[in-house]
Amino acid sequence: MISLQSVSVRVPVPRAPGQGWGTRTLLDDITLDLGERRVAFVGANGSGKSTLLRLLNGLVLASSGRVTVDGLDPATDGKSVRRRVGFVFTDPLSQLVMPTPLEDVELSLRRTVRDRTGRREAARGLLAARGLAHVAEQSIYDLSGGERQLVALTAVLAVEPAVLVADEPTTLLDLRNRLALRRIVAELDQRVVLATHDLDLARDADRVLVVDEGRIVADGAPAESIAHYERMMA
Ligand SMILES: Nc1ncnc2c1ncn2[C@@H]1O[C@H](COP(=O)(O)OP(=O)(O)OP(=O)(O)O)[C@@H](O)[C@H]1O
After folding, report:
1. PROSITE patterns, from UniProt (predicted)?
2. What ipTM score was computed for the predicted complex, to two decimals?
C-alpha cells in the first residue's frame, strides 16, 4: 500500500528583487491510500503530478506529513524504498547511464544474474522482447526519443521492482509504441502508478486522480475522473 498522510511540499522561491525569499506550496495537504494495481494521475502542466510521483521514491521529500510505500518511509528508508520502486522519468536521458541499451539493461540485472555471459544474454532477451534488438549496441545518444523511452522502461523493469512509477511514459512514443506500452502496463504483475497526459492510458487504470494546483480535485473510476478533468480543461 502507498499512503500519503497530510502531505505538503513547499519550496523556497525568490520574491521580487531585494525582497528576499517566500514559499511556494507545490502539494497542499494530500491524504491518499493507493492500493489499486493501476493508478493514474492526470492534470494540467505544472499542477504537481511529477512532484507527487517523486515523493514515492524519495526524490522529493514531504515538507510536512508522511509518505509510506509498503510501510517504508522514503525519508528514512530511502535505499529500501528505491529497491521496491522502479521510477521511469519523462526524460529517458536522465536515467540511462551506460553507453548502450545492452549495457544499461545488464547494469539493471547485476544483482539478479551474477554470471556475465548469462547477464548479457538475459539483457539481449529483454531488449528483443520490447522490439529493441536492433539498437541493443547502438549509442544511447543515437537512439530516437521513443527508443530511449522504451530502453529506460526495459532497464527499470529488469530490476523487477514491486512498484513501477512512470512519469509521462508515452510522451515520446508513436502510436504503435503507445499501444505496446499500454499492453505492457496492462500485463505487468507489478503495481503501477503513473502520471500522464495520455487519456487513453489513464482510462486503462483502475483509479484516476486529477491534480490541480497541488490538490486532488477528483478521485475515482477513470470515466468519472477523466470527465471531470475534461470539463476543467474546457
Ligand atoms: N524545486 C522546485 N522549486 C520551485 N518550483 C518547483 C520545484 N519543483 C517543481 N516546481 C514547480 O512546481 C509546479 C509543479 O511541478 P510538477 O513538475 O510537479 O508539475 P506536473 O504536473 O508534473 O507538470 P507537467 O505536466 O508539465 O509535467 C511547477 O510549476 C514547477 O515549476
Report:
1. ABC_TRANSPORTER_2
2. 0.96
